[in-house]
Fold:
Amino acid sequence: MLVLRDVYKTYQMGEAEVRALRGVSMELPPSQFAVIMGHSGSGKSTLMHLAGCLDIPTSGHVEYGDLNLTDLTSRERADFRSSEVGFVFQKYNLVGNLTALENVALPMLLRDSTTKHAQAKAREALDLVGLQDRMTHRPSKLSGGEQQRVAIARALINDPSMILADEPTGNLDTTTGDHILELLQQFTDNDKIVLVVTHNPEIADMADLLVYLRDGEIESQQVKEIAR
Amino acid sequence: MKLNLLRLALKNIQSRRTRSWLTILGVLVGVTAVVALLSIGTGVQEAVLQQFEDIGYDIILVAPANLAAGAARSSTGGYVPGSGAGRAGGGMPSAMPTTQPSAPSTTPGTFSPENLGATTPESETSERQAESVKDAMSSVASPGLDTQLLLTQVPQLIEAGTLGTQIQPVNTSTTSGFLRVSSPSLDFLDSFSSVLGGFKIESGSFFTNTTDNQVIVGARSAETLHLAVGDSISIANIPFTVIGILEPSSQSSEAEESEDGAALSSQSLSQSLGTSGSADLVLRGLTNTDDSLFVLNERATDILAGRARTSVTITRVEAGASISAAKDAINVAIGQQEASGTPISIQEIADEIQGTLSLIETVLASIAAVALIVGGVGLMNTMYTAVLERTREIGILKSVGARDGQVMTLFLVDSGLMGLIGGVLGLFLGSTLSLLGSRLLGPSLGVGSFTPIIDGWLISGVLVFSFVLGALSGVLPAWRASRLNPVEALAAE
Structure:
């Protein structure tokens, strides 16, 4: 269970103070497909970064199971991201000079895995997202949809309990986007939390939990039954 | 994990190929300079020390005090290069022969102090050489030590011999001028012929007695003077017969191709090293046999005495005996014989030259090190640029679980690898250059050919140093990379 308690996040942009989140509290149990919506600048990406331990709140707490993520050291946060979180970004964020297979194997290689084992797992993951024929291609030789599937395979490789996706379909055409969403939704069957940040109202229809953010505050929260 | 990071770093270097190679080039130039200069420096030192070893560290020379001071005077002497007085021999000290060679300025093939043994008569070197020749001529005649007496006075000595040197007017049937006449004693030739390159006779014979006027001619002198065995030659207007001609010295054959010529080799060595007077003259006197005439000391003492003659006594100390004690005993013996002279051990001369060589080597290596540091700065610049360019990639690595330390290690390995590659290539290039350079430099340094020393210490030192230089240059950029906030890094374009 991912829990946010009265979370504030303030950025310093030069002289100006940007209050990205203002007292956000929410709970996200396993096997949930959660969607966070809101206008640009509403704080939804910040919320995702805090949930994924990429950043720490200015005040408040982020908890995951028994762990208080706010108290972790930089190294512990890295280890948490490695073992519990898989990120999927709008811009795919693949390493340009690595092949699809190497990109997917990267999180395992950073955790002392042997190259052979990491590549075997990476092949499985790429197989799962339907890219068995494109493993040796570099990102620049792959379409947007293929790149996003590589990113999803990478997010899955360490078998995390939480998939965090920031506008995963933002750069994709509708058909490809739908495929990606179906793929993401499948993972909730394995007790994983899938949290998607998006503008896309179609994704909202798929959500077990739908959260609207406005100016850093939760405007509304809807559970599955209401959303459907 | 470390291996994985190494693989990632290699990929990064490959993906920025041009910039990586330019950065590596910066390190390569520095390493090349360091390797070339150090290996040549060590090689020259070894070669010079080998020369002394060939002569023997158990040897003590007794150079006359006036000879030892000769080089010091030469820098302040009154000789004016190219002046009429200098060329015609006017104004020469009283020790000069009263009979001048016939019409030296008009006879074809004239040789004179100015071009003695020099193939570049107009060069500054020949002027300096002329100065020292003049100094030798102006020095007061020294009778030298009685070597037999010396052996009884100093029990540590097992062998002793005398080598006299003087500049004399020489006439042959075709030409006339001044030449150096060396006069080794028989015991000198018995015990110390190695000092004169073995004193190997190429044609004719060795001295047959001490009563006839016999002369053995150095290889180049024989060639210049068109002398053959049996020819007559006049030294200081005294008739001599050529009974033998020496083989060219090893230095001569090695230095034949050099512009300066072999005759200058030992001189230019000691001059370029800036060694002080005694070592300079002793070295020069001992190592050049090609441009001398040789008359037995026993004969020269009788008929050429008093003609600007200086003698070096050379002695060998018994194995195991203290060199410094022997030197002290020799000093006492010199006093007892009422002679003058200063004992110098080969070790002292070697130490003096080695000290100078080490200083030169250190200076050259320091200059090379500056080139290496510049290479390191270039590497640091590249790494800073890489951190800026790869900010987003750093964000990606962190988002998939890379720890700060791993990001830092990745960048350190990256810059260390570039340093190491530059080091390996620089080692090869530097070694090649020093091998080529040794062929060109050897003759002009007066050590013949020498082998640059590229040993395990130099190789491992260069490789470790270049990796450490690379890694150190990468420390600040890598630290900066590791401290990047992942969210901000991911937002970078």
